[in-house]
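During the no-cost extension, the postdoctoral fellow (Dr. R.K.) reprocessed legacy sequence entries with the updated structure-token encoder. One reprocessed record is reproduced below for audit purposes.
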Amino acid sequence: GSMATPRQFHTSILLSSGNVLVTGGVGDADFLASCELYDPSTTKWKNTTSMTEERSSHTTTMLKSGKILATAGYGYTGYLDSSEIYDPSTGKWTPSAKLSTTRASHTATMLNSGKVLITGGEKQGSVRACTNPDLIRFRNCGAHS
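Re-encoded structure tokens follow.
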């Protein structure tokens, strides 16, 4: 099968269930908040809840809880400093931590400590690489500190 929405500058991440979550990106001419799930056992796509805001050139990272963290990126308002968490058990997105700076085309790495290290990328007002990292700790419920 095919995705419902053609997209680029999106992310895809393997969920604990074995399904693949595809998030955001850019469609024909629009930034996307929409998300789709791919089931490799049936080779079928289905829509799931959209993110709380449109984002492209963002990251998705699996937290230790199995929830998915989407960070920053680029949308209608420019570079983003927001993040949100997807709960695969409910299919819902919840807004989460603000980053210390706007950024897109960055990386986000789950550390053994349970913190997510967010580094690099481009930031508002500069095409230079963003050098200030964000280190965010997520507890079992997905809340941040």
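The chain is about 0% helix and 45% strand. Confidence is low (pLDDT under 50) at residues 139-145. The remaining legacy entries will be reprocessed before the final report is submitted.
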